[in-house]
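Quick question, first post here. What does this chain look like in 3D?
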Amino acid sequence: MSSVPLTESALPLPLIRRGKVREVYAVDGDTLLLVASDRVSAFDVVMDEPIPGKGAVLTQSSAYWFRELAAVTPSHFISADTDDIMERVPALADHRDAIAGRTTLARRTTPVPFECVVRGYVAGSAWKEYRESGTLAGEPLPEGLVESSKLEPPIFSPATKAESGHDENITFAAMSAALGPELAERLKQVSLELYTTAAGRSIERGVIIADTKFEFGHTSSGELLVIDEILTPDSSRFWPADRYEPGRSQPSFDKQPLRDFLDEYRQRGDWDGNPPPPALPPEVIQATSTRYQDAYLRITGEALPADL
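> Answer (accepted):
Ran it through. Tokens below.
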């Protein structure tokens, strides 16, 4: 793995957009190049400090799941193999260090403007809302749930997508009104099937997927694909199954050390949740990097290759 974190890529391809974590470049009219930097966001705010190895974990975790879940639904994924990508895109010949392990070649789509969140357990913002009002995105949940309770069955809980600022949980009815009931129902069913399939496979490796979010897009021919990243520590909440105990927050394999650090600042009133964020101490950066790589190891069964 590269010892120098990448905070921002600059490749000889047309830059389409620079997101919270990724740069998206145009390869041709049908193909995109996604570069996952080592930037990290929490509570929808990008931190000033990068997390070493993070971009490679996001890219290779997504590649693993795109392959594993191909039978559930098609995706935009073409390749995350550096040599293959460089052969397909000759303009990258002098940029191996910038793209190695962190780059995905993907089919171009028009994104659906909602995040498709699936919650298998009551945690994070879902627990906060439930504790206050017994609801999730304004819709009632069963009585008597405690923090980290398992939801049977898992709940589809869409959210608005925000390139900057905070995402917002919305009702399925609101999503249906915006997209039409047919597309909304299809997104719901595919998201639930992706989640339940992945959760079943992960529990065999001792990992609970508490919740996750999916994004979708349509190709120029109208085909619906799952896009962006999938089942990564950025888009999901992973818990060790052997330490699961309802009624409390759970230890996790995602960016929980970062969230916990920021929560302390917010509780003290030293940060209002908007940019600029507080500076991250080295121990939080290291703990977060370790969690990302541990998540990859536990879920895929393989360590992240050392040469990425």
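The domain at 111-263 is CATH 3.30.470.20 (D-amino Acid Aminotransferase; Chain A, domain 1).
The CA atoms of residues 135 and 292 lie 31 Å apart.
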